[in-house]
Amino acid sequence: MTASDRDLVAAVRAELAAIDPSRPCDRRAEIAGLGPRPVSREPTVARLAVRLGGRHASAPGTRRFVLPEESLAWAEAAEHCRLAWLRGRFLARGSLSLAGGRAHLEFVVPPDEAPQLAGQLADMGLPAAWRLRRGRGVVTWKSGESIVAFLGRIGANASLLELQARSVARSLRGDLNRVINAESANLQRSVAAAGRQLAAIDSLEADGRLAHQPRTVRIVAQARRETPEASLSDIAARLELHRSAVQRALDRLERLALHDDAGIGRRGHGQRLSPGQGR
User: What's the whole-model pTM score?
Assistant: First the structure.
């Protein structure tokens, strides 16, 4: 992640850790989510542990705390208690990555907890994938919409504005780059086609075959010479022809130029003799 992305992730976690649950049941639920020995050593999480009644596990300054033993009866718990528990679980066992413009959020938990946590998230309308990785359970979201929805519901509202703004900016940059690349490719194809057409016109004029072409083909050839940069639509509008007629005329010029036989393309060349002709 870039320094800017790391700062945003830190801001999200700091905002969540700064929430001070007003309901006693929410405080207990968040303690239960953090677990008796939170894995995170972040200062913001350490301060949260102190506010929730944690004590140092060893010498002061280690940022390792022991919290009171609490549990949450998920099936009977109110939604606000469930969200407090999930907030604590994320702070203790979750991580957020914004590398490469893509959001990735995961919980690393004991292996037997992974399917249970995935089920609890599904209960909240936030289904997540889970798997085992090196003996640990991993519950994952890779969808930006799911991650934003989860973080918003557990309280990271201010930081999400920046996260969403970045997501929109990246999306717009991606769309703009795709449009520019498509336009560049179209322009290159148009330039290459115009070059072939001009070469074909010069070749046909040099061997006299251009003068024998139908009027539409000749005026299209002249318009292409006068305006090499013009699109098919521009030439069609200038000559008051259909675009398809201009395309057919230019295709004919290129096909004729591929043949060395000077007779190809002349009026009457290759036509069948009528009865009595040639006798």
Answer: 0.61
